[in-house]
Amino acid sequence: MIITYQEENYFKVQSGEQTILTDPTNQRSIKGANVVIFSSIKDSEIISQIPLEEGSPISIYHQGEYEIGGIHIRGWSTEHEGDVEKTMYNIQWDDISIGILGPLTKELDAKTLFAFQEIDILIVPAGGKPYIQQSAAAKIIRQLKPGIIIPSLFKDLKPFLREIDGDDALFEEKLTIKKKDIVPNAMKIVVLKPCLPSEK
Description:
This protein is of the alpha/beta class. The protein has helices at residues 27-30, 46-49, 110-115, 134-144, 158-163, and strands spanning 2-7, 10-15, 18-22, 35-37, 40-42, 58-60, 64-68, 71-81, 84-93, 96-100, 121-125, 148-152, 170-172, 175-176, 188-192.
């Protein structure tokens, strides 16, 4: 499995011939994907953001359980702000579990935390306002104890790294990983360098 970071909460996850995109910010990249996940979307934007022509990827934008080509995805609605629904996801793929918190602004309840137990990789908003505060994000991380932590939605990462004692964080262009490489509960921090626009 290969994970690359584009910008904001836009990640590309690849394994074999299959590709998942999370919160893509441009239409061009969607065409090459098998599955596109939106963690925050307005009701009025659904039709405009999701291509409907033949051969388009499967799009997921709200809570529920999905199985697509051996990829198992479960989504939980976390917040509603007006007509905007926010959803977090647990992806089970290649024996690896990936948690995507998305643009979360508050702590998780006990039921949702339980559903994210034994997460291998956790993608967590790390930039503070307007999203969840770094201290609250760190609390979620300590509760879940993922094998690997990948920050998203940040401009200045220093406050987040201070909260989680991230002096040993690794800075990489991409994460290439197999299940056997992940140490349970290790809370290893991997900061992915955003790709340049030409790489999207």
